[in-house]
Specification:
- The chain is mainly α and about 325 residues long.
- Among the domains are: about 100 residues, no CATH class; about 80 residues.
- It has 16 helices and no strands.
- α6 packs parallel to α8.
Length: about 325
């Protein structure tokens, strides 16, 4: 009898504790998230549409004046938490954030933190945007073309790719023209990312005067292009067996950059034939750097020829 009472008393205490924890959780209003940024988003909702909370106000301060590494980190954390919670910005806060981004980086902020902050702001603006609002697209287009920092142009292009389908016909036409100019410029450091966008858009817009596959082949083979652009071009068509002849030519050419040859070796492992095993062995014996790609590619090729499925190898 005493044992039963102890069991009942223990169950009652446990139930009371659970109820208390649930009540505290509801009062906190943070849906099970206890981070400072989550609490700030909760106060953002309570503040009303025209009164920015302390969290968003601090974001604007960092955009305008910069801040310590900790303050920049907190601003990024606030924006990223809103994205995870799928909390869209109010119209007033969207306008204020876009205006802050248009002004550019504060004088004392380094390129890396600014790029991270800008990227997080773009992600925040992408949550539940108003229908037909192309203000972010206009900003991204200007950054992609005019910003002197390559990392900013690359971020802008990536975000343009996310929002392209929601743009109007005139805007899409203008963006395609901008990207094509990047592709036609042999010195463009953003041509690799531009090519990825071009191949994506080709699926919905159709092939132009030259297919993205042929354009990618030409860019990968062009020694006047930056090497990272050439690697990106190979990566863009890495799922097409038609790239095999080009990868064979690049892999065996000792005048080509090592990183490009490594990308080619990986694709030979993905699409090659039995005779390609000798090329993979020769390149692997040439240097330890090439063996980093050549040996896994040889294993993948042998397994594929034997009918053993393996994870897809991607170019370096």
């Amino acid at each position: 009898m005493i044992a039963n009472r102890r069991v009942l008393l223990g169950a009652l205490v446990a139930a009371v504790c659970v109820a208390a924890i649930f009540a505290i959780w509801k009062i906190a209003g943070i849906s099970g998230l206890s981070s400072p940024a989550a609490r700030e988003w909760s106060s953002e909702e309570r503040a009303g549409p025209k009164t920015p909370s302390r969290g968003f106000g601090q974001v604007l301060v960092v955009f305008e004046r910069g801040g310590t590494p900790r303050e920049v980190e907190q601003a990024i954390g606030f924006l990223d938490t809103g994205v995870r919670l799928r909390k869209g910005l109010t119209p007033e806060n969207r306008t204020a954030l876009l205006a802050a981004m248009e002004r550019g980086a504060p004088a004392e902020m380094a390129d890396g933190p600014w790029a991270h902050l800008f990227n997080s702001a773009c992600n925040a603006l992408a949550v539940n945007p108003p229908d037909g609002d192309e203000s972010l697209l206009g900003l991204l287009e200007r950054v992609a073309v005019e910003d002197p920092r390559n990392i900013m142009r690359l971020y802008a292009l990536q975000h343009l790719g996310r929002h392209y389908s929601s743009a109007g016909p005139d805007t899409r036409r203008r963006l395609r023209g901008m990207v094509r100019r990047m592709l036609d410029d042999p010195a463009s450091p953003t041509a690799g990312t531009a090519l990825v966008l071009w191949r994506q858009w080709e699926k919905t817009e159709g092939t132009g005067a030259i297919s993205s596959f042929e354009l990618s082949r030409a860019m990968a083979a062009d020694p006047a292009r930056p090497v990272d652009v050439r690697v990106a071009a190979l990566h863009a068509i890495g799922d097409d067996p038609g790239v095999l002849d080009l990868t064979r030519a690049i892999a065996g050419d000792r005048t080509q950059p090592v990183i490009l040859r490594k990308a080619a070796l990986s694709l030979i492992g993905r699409h090659g034939q039995e005779r390609d095993l000798e090329v993979l062995r020769e390149c692997s014996a040439e240097s330890s750097r090439l063996s980093q790609a050549g040996e896994p590619a040889a294993r993948a090729l042998k397994d594929r020829l034997a009918g053993v499925p393996r994870p897809v190898l991607h170019p370096y």
